[in-house]
Amino acid sequence: MAPEESWNCAQGIPPWWPESNGKIERSLLIDDEELYGRFTLRTRGELHRLLHEWEHEHNHRWPHLALRGKTPVDCLRELRIRDPQPVRESA
Are 13 and 20 in contact (CB under 8 A)? Predict the structure, then answer.
């Protein structure tokens, strides 16, 4: 069983049932179209670099409809401004 299948099963989503996991299927489609489908990767280093760039692009530059057109980073900044929590040092 592939790692993503075991995660899905742990979440109660049966493997190979796209109807049951629409959000995951959509995410995989976007990853394939915007990331893996656009590049030929030859090494793990290239993959790690590309994933780092992709994560930054997705979280810092892409507006998300679910976030009312804001980026995830923008929403985090707003949450910290509205409800700042002091950082507690561990003993």
Answer: yes
